Amino acid sequence: MTSTQVAREPLLQRAKRKAERVLGPAGIFFKGFLKHPAMVGAIVPSSNRTIERVLSVVDWEECRLFVEYGPGVGTFCRPVLEKLRRDGRLIVIDTNPDFIAYLQKTIGDSRFIAIHGSATDVEDIVKAHGFDHADYVLSGLPFSNLPEGVGPAIMGATHRVLRPGGAFLVYQYTARARDLMSQFFRRIDKGFEPVNVPPCVISWGWKE
């Protein structure tokens, strides 16, 4: 590390802490993006329009377990909990411990479970919490940026963990994830939300 890099490091740390204080959840999200840009995939959370559109296919009366990969600062968590039945559960899985710690601290709902781990382990996580399957799985993970083999592993595990009639809800900023989804899901409904930064490509993969 050069002397210039050494000098910059404290400045970057101070900037991250200030962003957290001033921006609140957005600051936490921005910090996560700076640390793991390939895993977060966007510099700002999804818009309300995107949230409503992505969740529009969910039959909330029949949803007992909703799973989310990469929840970030809870942009989708709170709307999901508002709609989720009183005896339902929301399990979120993230590899970023900062996001998990933030969610555990700020969401005080007994139906909410935040797990620091990998989406590839979703089957074991679901079983460990007393469920045989998930009704819906949501993901904003940037599949095109994941390490080799991780994307297919997540897709395969997701298809296996879903109940028949359940769906994998995927929002991305390109349509490339659909090629991977099509290897596991025969029916994929397509959507697009322009009121988002950047505009959002939505795919709903149904387990038949």
From TrEMBL:
<keyword id="KW-0808">Transferase</keyword>
<dbReference type="InterPro" id="IPR029063">
    <property type="entry name" value="SAM-dependent_MTases_sf"/>
</dbReference>
<protein>
    <submittedName>
        <fullName>Phospholipid N-methyltransferase</fullName>
    </submittedName>
</protein>
<dbReference type="GO" id="GO:0008168">
    <property type="term" value="F:methyltransferase activity"/>
</dbReference>
<dbReference type="InterPro" id="IPR041698">
    <property type="entry name" value="Methyltransf_25"/>
</dbReference>
<dbReference type="Pfam" id="PF13649">
    <property type="entry name" value="Methyltransf_25"/>
</dbReference>
<keyword id="KW-0489">Methyltransferase</keyword>
<feature type="domain" description="Methyltransferase">
    <location>
        <begin position="67"/>
        <end position="166"/>
    </location>
</feature>
<dbReference type="GO" id="GO:0032259">
    <property type="term" value="P:methylation"/>
</dbReference>
